[in-house]
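Per reviewer request, we include the raw input and output of the structure prediction for the construct analysed in the revised manuscript.
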Amino acid sequence: QINIAVVDVNDNAPIFDRDVYRVHVVENVAVGTLLTRINAVDLGEGVNAELTYSFTSYVPPNIRELFKLDQITGEIRVHGAFDYEETNVYELDVQAVDNGSA
């Protein structure tokens, strides 16, 4: 099981379509498999409405190595091998930043 919590970055921050995304994955899932696509919208206009997705600093490097987050599309894919004897639940904190935050 993978729980993905999302957080906002600024007062006029993007709004996610849900607070938590839950994905159940088999241990031998192939690298590159799409797990989920997070989605946020921003009420700004033009480039201020364009979003960049990233893991927050709460996601440790060893967990980041297992998942690939596309900064533009919000797709989260398998990037490494899971060992459920070692860990059977992963939690990923993801943020979306609009160009108005820069």
